[in-house]
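[User] I wish I could look at a protein chain and see how it folds. I have put the entry right below:
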Amino acid sequence: MPELPEAETIARTLAPHVEGRLIRSIRFFAPRARRGMIPDLEGRRLLRSRRHGKQVVLELDGGVLMVKLGMTGSLRWRGPAGPYTRALLELDEGWISFDDVRQFGSIGWAPECPRSLGPDPLEVSEEEFRARLALRSARIKTLLLDQHFLRGLGNIYADEILFAAAIHPLTPARRLDAERVGRLYQVMRDVLERAIAAGGSSISDYVDADGRPGNFQQFHQVYGRAGGNCPRCGRTLRRILIAQRSTHFCPGCQKQNY
């Protein structure tokens, strides 16, 4: 599932192709791909391609197209039409195709990006991060997945961040001491920045706007590696369910000491 690094990579690789272009039309080939009402976009200028949480945002004059990637969504510059193409945004030169195998993604329209979600993990200050964490009693893995706490994290990077911070995923957030909170904040930024630099993680069919897969999956320490050996201590990595989500961790490095 595309998370913050993948959405950031798609937005960045799309930007040089589309910023400044005029829109001719938007066509949908699957009803589920359209989220709510979308006005006539003909003649509107595409000003900017950026990310908001896990979504790719196409800023236009007068509003934004919010692209929810879901489990398997992708945006391709001049992508070839195929059986999984759900929408096509035609520009004065070229087009953007929205492909989605499992159809959990969609495109919606809004006057501006919603403000109901939490801050961005790469923009939140350490002071605000500490303050928000201190108020929450949820397990830390559950909290990192809560888009109202922080927007953009999903299963892959929550597991990798908690391993890097040596924090057990079942630890109640408010039981973390100041040292561990500081470490969590720093490794969160480090893991995400390294993942973006690597073009994201291609677990199944993720590619950027130019059709290139990511490489960060080669550097996963725990995600998807249950039963293998911990790269740090050699213990067998485990997989458990937390809030119905698969969670990967090392019982040796991430001890239940809370």
